[in-house]
């Protein structure tokens, strides 16, 4: 009898451990709620769940987790503007803008964006849900999104998802399905992407237009990463960091008194002019620059960066952002400054070295985001799964070859007279800097014939500028203005 009991217990244990963790293929949960935005009650429906990705043979290859907010007390119905929202990473979930920027809920954080306990979310009275519906999309391996086994028991190869061009191809197809299922073809459509999401939405603009016959009203890039600048190296990449150094040094009061006494926005144009007109040509000369010019450039770099001339000369005038985060406060507090938001401070094991031990700002943000999104999905959106929510997921060896997204956006704009572009950046972002975003914007249309369709907005914060409450208010207002300005009701699509 005792032997039989042990066998039964063992079989139960074996059965429980052999259960496979299933990825939902096609499912949703709907909740209803309301929020006060700009003094008006906005009733909305939140739809969250999974929608499949199919291959050309009609087989499900992946299932993407999404959350869709639709205002229910409005006169336009499904003709309201629709925003399709992505983050970047490349393996980052859509959590950041979802519960900190445009959505109806935001993190429980202080006025400057620092985490406080108890963790959780609260109403976002600044959300753009009053004028546009929003869907937050999690690409494969981010959030709960995962690849799905094919009928032969194998998974689709990584290369079908994890690359600049593969990413936009399958996401464009997924968007087509979403728009069709939710009857949103009549809506003015906008795609917004943060960080690598900037690369993603530039590519999607043409892929949606040419492969899915879906024309956009707007492309919005938040702290965009254009890898033709960010990781290209050389004089252009190096010189375009300089204005960010000026901003970070100003914030930490490390500039010369005559600059420090001025407002940030009064000194940044000076730094930008120096970067383009003097530093970039000097760096282009490499080791053949004259000693007198080298010393003069080092002096000017010191003036605009807060670093010593000696250190700048030791670095051959080429200051990497990682070195800057370590060096700026080395001889004062000995602390490092944040990568994505240089207002944040870190403490390294030793003060020597050429880069920080960790990203002070990201570790701070994860205090708030990870608990909040897990709580929110389960307790307020009423969606439950045993899958782990990947704030950052493994996306393999991302294929960056044939990166032509900048040209893709230019073509999409040229072919679509409706299409307008807005860039939003924080001055203290040291990863995808505001001036590199400006420079990238300048390069999209060399003809200059479409420059009146580009807008740039800067904010006194970092990569996720919306974490600072003052910028959360302004950035959402800038989105409203952009959406209204790109409305084309009654206007013909022609030049």
Question: Which helices and strands, and how do they pair?
Answer:
Blueprint: H1 2-18, E1 27-37, E2 40-54, E3 60-71, E4 82-86, H2 95-98, E5 105-107, E6 121-123, E7 133-137, E8 146-147, H3 164-181, E9 189-194, H4 196-211, E10 218-222, H5 227-230, H6 234-239, H7 242-251, H8 257-260, H9 264-284, H10 291-305, H11 309-314, H12 321-327, E11 336-337, E12 345-346, H13 360-379, H14 405-415, E13 420-426, H15 434-444, E14 454-459, H16 469-485
Parallel strand pairs: 4-7, 4-9, 9-10, 10-13, 13-14
Antiparallel strand pairs: 1-2, 2-3, 3-7, 3-8, 5-6, 11-12
Helix pairs in contact: 3-4, 4-14, 7-9, 9-10
Average of pLDDT: 94
Given helix and strand content, the structural type is alpha/beta
Give the helix tally. Answer: 16
Tally of domains: 2
What do we call the CATH topology of the largest domain? Rossmann fold
Query: What is the count of β-strands?
Result: 14
In angstroms, what separates the terminal alpha carbons?
Answer: 87 Å
- Described by the principal axes of the CA atoms, the overall outline is globular
Quaternary arrangement of the chains shown?
single chain
Going by CATH, what is the homologous superfamily of the largest domain? Alpha/Beta hydrolase fold, catalytic domain
CATH class of the largest domain: Alpha Beta
Give a structural overview:
- With 495 residues, the protein is of the alpha/beta class.
- It folds into 2 domains: 27-229 and 367-485, Alpha/Beta hydrolase fold, catalytic domain (Rossmann fold, 3-Layer(aba) Sandwich); 233-358, no CATH class.
- The chain has 16 helices and 14 strands.
- It has helices at 2-18, 95-98, 164-181, 196-211, 227-230, 234-239, 242-251, 257-260, 264-284, 291-305, 309-314, 321-327, 360-379, 405-415, 434-444, 469-485, and strands at residues 27-37, 40-54, 60-71, 82-86, 105-107, 121-123, 133-137, 146-147, 189-194, 218-222, 336-337, 345-346, 420-426, 454-459.
- Strands 1, 2, 3, 4, 7, 8, 9, 10, 13 and 14 form a 10-stranded mixed beta sheet that branches. A two-stranded antiparallel sheet has the order 5-6.
- Helix 4 packs across helix 14, helix 7 runs antiparallel to helix 9 (264-284) and helix 9 (264-284) runs antiparallel to helix 10.
- The radius of gyration is 24 Å and the shape is globular.
